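SEVERITY: medium
COMPONENT: batch folding queue
REPORTER: lab tech (J.R.)

DESCRIPTION
The queue accepted two submissions in a row. Attaching both inputs and their returned structure tokens so the on-call engineer can compare them side by side.

ATTACHMENT 1
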Amino acid sequence: MLTGKPDWLDRLAQVLVLAVGLFVLLFGAFMILWPLDWYTALPTVVATGPPNKHFIRDIGIAYAACGIILLYASANIHMRWLAAFTGSLWLALHGVLHIYEVSVGICTPEAFVADAPGVLGPPLLVFVALGILFVRQRVAPAGIPDWAFLKVVDQMSPGESEYMHEMATAPGHVMEKLKHFMPVTNHRHQASAELLLAARIGATLVEDCGPCAVTAAQGGLMDGVDRELINQMLAGQVDGDIKTGFDFGQAIASQSDHAFELGDSLEESFGRTVRLELAVAAATVRSYPGMKRGLGLTKACSLTPLQV
């Protein structure tokens, strides 16, 4: 999942989806508003037979709908990647139809080559954008099949993900609902990776769930936090601003009045948004130990090697 501000590769994926969305929306609008002008503007279309304004507008509506979905997805591509896939699905199937027609001789290779940039290019660009995000694991878990999601969870927390498997088999789509919740627990935009992790680990240690603390620490490694610093956090041996963030997380988890003064200190040093991000992380990360404890699967920190 994305933590921190998007980098240039994230922005590239976003721009690709945005560009395709604008193109297919305008292309669809052209078909809807001026169907006969569209028909005469494309020589390969003229070769298929006489125009049908109703049919052209039908296809134009499909293009426009795909464009609207892609534009919606591009605004927050990491969370809305499934919308991007949906918006490109009709475009991709349309491209498959063109490949089929040239393969069986319905259309000529010359016509296929002429149409290919406009027909195959848009869905391929969206798939490239999604590939960039998936390879870098920068997508929200909602929409990922349970078997693939659980495989990643098992790799991050070997032997400690039993509660996730239990929820995956529970009725009522509880796992799908949890996947929508998970991104908020490590939301970060302006806070540093180190400061956010300190608050998360501090709050988790209060819950006395060793495996949960190690899982949070593994997330910190993926976010680029130094391993030695992470192990210092797990041991509670930090100082300076990191200690303030750590103590803030612990104060929130223990519902201590110290959260007020610690939050004020963080806000004075880093701003209101950073305080908000640390508060959200510390408050929500406690849900995982709570679920484990409720299912009788928690292990105390004293029983778990707290290091990565």
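ATTACHMENT 2
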Amino acid sequence: MTKENKTLADALTPRQIVEELDTYIIGQFDAKRAVAIALRNRARRQMLAEDIQDEVAPKNIIMIGSTGVGKTEIARRLARLVDAPFIKVEASKYTEIGYVGRDVESMIRDLTEIAIARVKAEQTVAVEEKAREFAEERLLDALIPMPRSLRRQQQDADSRLLALLDEDEEDEMELEGDDDNDSDMQMTFDSPAEGEETADPDGLFARRERYYKTRDMFKKWLSDGKLEDKPVEVNVKPRSVPFVEIFSPGGIEEMDINFKDMFSSILPNQTKKRRLPVTEARQILMQEEAEKLIDMDTVISDAIERVENAGIVFLDEIDKIAGRESRHGPDVSREGVQRDILPIIEGSTVASKYGPIRTHHILFIAAGAFHVSSPSDLIPELQGRFPIRVELKSLTQTDFKAILTEPKNALVKQYTALLETEGVNAVITGDAIDEIASLAFQVNESVEDIGARRLHTIMEKLFENLFFDAPEFGKDTVTIDAAYVTAELAEIVKDQDLSKYIL
């Protein structure tokens, strides 16, 4: 969709954002409304004067709800909607014993890496045509290399031209006005020397003309796609970078050193000869040429600006670090993790190998089930940085039915499409969908509520036999009705225990 714009006229309205989220996510209007307003406020902030723009803090959100109700999906789809840098981290991982060498600031560094990769991909698309031209020239050099005699002639001509250009300004001006000198220079490139054609009809000039005609013919074949399967040997740069592991108390990120660039400048720039089909060689050469055309300084500055003004960090399982040391165990202090995260959410400057990253306007969306704790168990300073709290409702049987059929990526569409690749057309009747939704709701109620993830469990078991038999299936069409669903899931209904099927 559209990137986050700097004019309100171009930015999506909250209602439009909710409508786009409805395409993929069923229900949870309150949560969608909250994130839509928070996103729109970003565009509004861009319209403010600079002196007040920096004072407007992002409206961070806490989503409260059990697993599988759509918390992560809402945040992820929101980021995709505006093409914003997005990262999901589990807050609970910072409490694990042995979790050293990485600190909470690593989430911002990882978000920056994601943004740089995205901007670099966009720049690659922008220079794709120019990179293709250079890559095809390298392919032509590999398919029909220039003969040595012609290469020497070309080198001699280049050397002669450089020698003329190195003369003083007065001599160069005389050279420009001297027609005889121009004709001498033209001799090597455009016409044979006097008497050369008669003495040697198949001389260097004629061979050079034949070479370039052949090259033009191959170039046309490349453009027409007639050489895609032809093997060719090309010199490519190895992708591997020497691995060096360094242990430091504060983590390797704080050292602010780009080891990849450092080693690439120290070690020789070696190439490896590979024999590949033209179609594969072109892609590799295009990547190499695109990297030469891309200005990494521009990429880094653009990526940092996106992170600082449009980045979204999704802090999952924040309820696992809620609490005031009421329990004792092998975990790292949960309140200590909260205090480590607090400065990043409040707004601080994180050092990275690309430069300082300001977190003052990054949108933080936290989420948790809060079954055994509540948001009020967080330290007061952290609570104050999440002014918006929304509670996501547990999914009903009607919601399950809608999830199966309505979203753009509905499960029914996914599973039938998988079977279509085997030439089997699966027709799922309305009563079958009702039965699947009823069963998913029933098991969630009686065993454990895992939200929409239960549908994945049910559907996988329902289609298990069809997926196994599809390559040898004798029918073109199979109908899945309520009776079929009951028969396939009879054991699950009987046992009321899906623990061994949970993915």
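NOTES FROM REPORTER
The radius of gyration is 32 Å.
No errors were logged for either attachment.
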